[in-house]
Amino acid sequence: MVEAKNALKKYAYNTRNAVREIEYAAEQIIQWLDGGQLAKAEEFEGKMKELEGICDLFISKMYH
User: Fold this and answer.
1) How many folded domains does the chain comprise?
2) Nearest to 20, CA basis, from 63, 54, 64
């Protein structure tokens, strides 16, 4: 029971921390968008890849 509880607690904390980091990254992108309406398509695509990379990294960490 103790091992199962600790595993769940660890997973919950890791999930919370990952969500916070993803949320922070998303907020940074939103702030950039608010000031970057004149950016080129490549810049928007780069920011999209950046955010996708962050999300993918944390999602893969949660399952391993």
Assistant:
1) 1
2) 54
Task: Classify residue 20 by burial, with Cβ atoms within 10 Å: 0-12, 13-18, 19+.
Answer: exposed
Q: Give the span between the Cα atoms of 5 and 54, in whole angstroms.
A: 28
User: Which residue range is the domain that position 36 belongs to?
Assistant: 2-62
Q: List the one residue out of 54, 53, 36 whose CA is nearest residue 44.
A: 36
The model's pTM is 0.76
pLDDT band at 6 (very low <50, low <70, confident <90, very high): very high
Judged by DSSP in three states, 39 sits in coil
